[in-house]
Amino acid sequence: MTRLEQVESRIVSCARCPRLVSWREESAAHPPARYAGQAYWARPVPGFGDPAARVLVVGLAPAAHGGNRTGRVFTGDRSGDFLFQVLYETGFANQPVSVELGDGLRLADLYVAAVNRCAPPHNKPTVEERDNCLPFLVAELRALDRVRVVVCLGAFAWDGALRALARLGHSARPRPRFGHLAVMEMGPYTLIGSFHPSQQNTFTGRLKPSMLRDVFVRARSLGGLPPAAG
């Protein structure tokens, strides 16, 4: 078993946060009509992607009827629809859509994770729930020893990535502030901030596809990767 597989095994068996366990199971038991009859994953959701990734994407948490349903973070929800289209256009994904496990999606030079691995009510983990989950992100960073760029989708992910890197001995003073296309070097890593591809941001135009493409074009460059073909 590889180091990443060991981390994945620890993630999917975790039950440290009673509120999140209850919510993920309640969401699976009462799906919206469009998902009626589907079998939900309803467990903590591990990261996924290329074990040799140079770029790590960090999100907030799985969606109750997205990753909590499909078993893969960002897969099967509107945020993922927005994200994977851009990952395809910037050469990190082999296809522009991701709807379920086994749909053929493959990532190259990129790994996707989250600060929290269970869907939280109202997308708001507590401080304790964040801290319970943070060791998983630290373990993934240790296992992904080629990662040099961390793309943080939203302020919560930015904060979580800073906390994870601090546990690895990398910190900065003053503490870097989150912003779209904010860039910060932390030891061997470079953090890039991006607005989260939530409907709240994409429907209002706060985050446009071109803005997210700029983030991942920058990530390729900072990670020492060639420009995407085409």
Q: CATH-wise, what's the superfamily?
A: Uracil-DNA glycosylase-like domain
User: How many domains, as an integer?
Assistant: 1
Any idea what the CATH architecture is?
Answer: 3-Layer(aba) Sandwich
Calculate the mean pLDDT score and round it.
96
CATH class: Alpha Beta
- Gyration radius (Cα, Å) is 16 Å
CATH topology: Uracil-DNA Glycosylase, subunit E
What kind of sheet is the major sheet? 6 strands, mixed
Distance between the amino and carboxyl termini: 37 Å
Oligomeric state of the chains in view: single chain
**Major sheet: order of its strands?**
1-3-2-4-6-5
Structural class call reads: alpha/beta
The total of beta strands comes to 6
Your description of this structure?
The protein is α/β, with parallel strands linked by helices and 230 residues long. It has a single domain, classed as Uracil-DNA glycosylase-like domain (Uracil-DNA Glycosylase, subunit E), CATH 3.40.470.10. Helices cover 37% and strands 12% of the residues. The protein has helices spanning 3-12, 18-29, 67-70, 78-89, 127-143, 155-167, 199-202, 209-222, and strands at residues 48-49, 55-59, 110-114, 149-153, 183-186, 189-194. It has a six-stranded mixed β-sheet with strand order 1-3-2-4-6-5, sandwiched between helices. Helix 5 crosses helix 6. The radius of gyration is 16 Å and the shape is globular. 47% of the residues are buried.
